[in-house]
Write a structure and sequence with these properties.
mainly beta, five-stranded antiparallel beta sheet, 45% strand, binds thymidine-5'-diphosphate
Length: 134
């Protein structure tokens, strides 16, 4: 069963020249094949997103713009990670509860996902999550 030790900040390779920065996510630089990309924007201040775990989906969360905090929780331990760099991605394996909060104005939260959307693989109830951890 996954623990928050497997949650990792990944450095996204970038190419920097006088015209700006180009960051690249390529298939060999991340631990899964991307099946879906989604993003959150226009998040009102004080909003909390997430509040679920996934039985099958692995994710990489990137603060494309602005900043926010991701709280990851394996049922025994929790940690809070501030994301505020577009060339950093937070890898979250399966079976980790996550919440995202403290969005700055204009923040854009990009999620690279290993599965297509399937509500059946979500765990949205925290008690059920803890039970699933045994
Ligand atoms: P939700 O899981 O609550 O978003 P967050 O992870 O930010 O808390 O999803 C909000 C709504 O969007 C919910 O009705 C499910 C739907 N949804 C899709 O239809 N497709 C998707 O790929 C995702 C991630 C969510």
């Amino acid at each position: 069963m996954n623990t928050i030790k497997k949650v990792k900040l990944l450095e996204i390779p970038k190419v920097h020249d006088e015209r700006g920065i180009l960051a690249v996510v390529e298939k060999d630089s991340i631990p899964f094949k991307i099946e879906r990309v989604y993003y959150l924007y226009d998040v009102p201040s004080g909003s909390c997103r997430g509040g679920h775990a996934h039985k099958e989906q692995q994710s990489i969360i990137i603060a494309l713009s602005g900043s926010f905090e991701v709280i990851v929780d394996d049922g025994s331990s929790k940690k809070r990670v501030m994301l505020n760099k577009p060339n950093q991605g937070l890898y979250i394996p399966t079976n980790i509860w996550r919440e995202i909060e403290n969005f700055s104005a204009g923040a854009v939260c990009l999620v690279l996902a290993s599965t297509i959307y399937n509500e059946d693989e979500y765990i949205r109830n925290y008690e059920s999550f803890l039970l699933s951890k045994g």
